[in-house]
Design a protein that fits this description.
With 259 residues, the chain is mainly alpha-helical. The protein is built from 10 helices and no strands.
């Protein structure tokens, strides 16, 4: 099902949410950046101890730095903080309180978010081995998997299936949106890297809004939520029939659809 949306309007709406809750969004971004940078700095390449004219030695040193335990720990912490940032973004969209209580998500939300990110990256990487285009196609179609683990509390498999299902027929529109939002994020880096503390949260909020555009009309039913058929119940005598219970309606917090 094709979705109709304006990327510029989505970015504009994300900026409004950011301006309203800028303190908490910038705080979470700064803390995540400081911790990640500190861990990455501990595994920085020491050019004084290697021959920079020897390409193989430089590449070997780079590989060791990337694959160091501290580098992996830094990437893990960055993913966990991003999960919290996304939870804050969805709270802002739903008109809920945006604060550090977002850290109190169920542990499985964190686990599924990290696992979905790693698995989608692996799938897209495999696609890139054959050709760049298949990798890009898979990355775009599965980009909401991690978001669904936070917003809909789906497990890894259901989140990937849901993203693949919801994005069908929207590849080119989504690719254009990804490029535009990515350029917006890069613009913050160009502003002496200070602007990234504003544009990075805005980008994640924009992607959160974009994911909602696809879920609000989705007919995907996760297997974990499928209800098994129950055996028919024998009819009761009229004298013992219970009054029919009123149907319960779950009111979901709305958000202004100005995109």
């Amino acid at each position: 099902m094709k979705r109709d949306f304006s990327t510029t309007n989505i970015i504009s709406a994300a900026c409004e949410y950011m301006n309203k809750h800028w303190l908490v969004f910038i705080a979470i971004t700064v803390v995540s950046g400081v911790i990640t940078s500190a861990l990455s700095g501990s595994s920085t390449i020491n050019l004084n101890n290697i021959d920079t004219n020897n390409i193989q030695e430089v590449l070997r040193e780079v590989q060791q730095s990337i694959n160091s335990p501290l580098a992996y720990l830094g990437r893990l912490i960055d993913m966990l903080f991003t999960a919290v940032l996304l939870k804050m973004a969805y709270n802002a969209i739903d008109g809920k309180k945006v604060d550090f209580d977002a850290f109190k998500m169920p542990v499985m939300n964190y686990v599924n978010y990290v696992a979905a990110g790693i698995l989608v990256g692996f799938i897209a990487g495999i696609g890139c081995l054959f050709c760049l285009l298949p990798g890009i196609f898979l990355a775009v179609r599965l980009q909401f998997a991690s978001y669904y683990t936070i917003d809909r509390s789906l497990n890894v498999i259901d989140a990937i299936k849901a993203s693949w299902h919801d994005t069908k027929g929207n590849f080119w529109h989504l690719l254009g949106a990804d490029i535009l939002i990515g350029l917006f994020m890069i613009a913050g880096v160009l502003l002496c890297c200070v602007g990234m503390f504003y544009t990075t949260p805005v980008a994640y909020i924009a992607f959160a809004i974009l994911s909602r555009v696809f879920t609000e009309s989705s007919d995907f039913t996760p297997e974990s939520e499928a209800v098994a058929p129950t055996a028919p119940v024998a009819p009761q005598a009229p004298a013992f029939q219970q009054p029919e219970e009123a149907t319960k309606v779950n009111d979901q917090a709305g958000y202004t659809k100005n995109y």
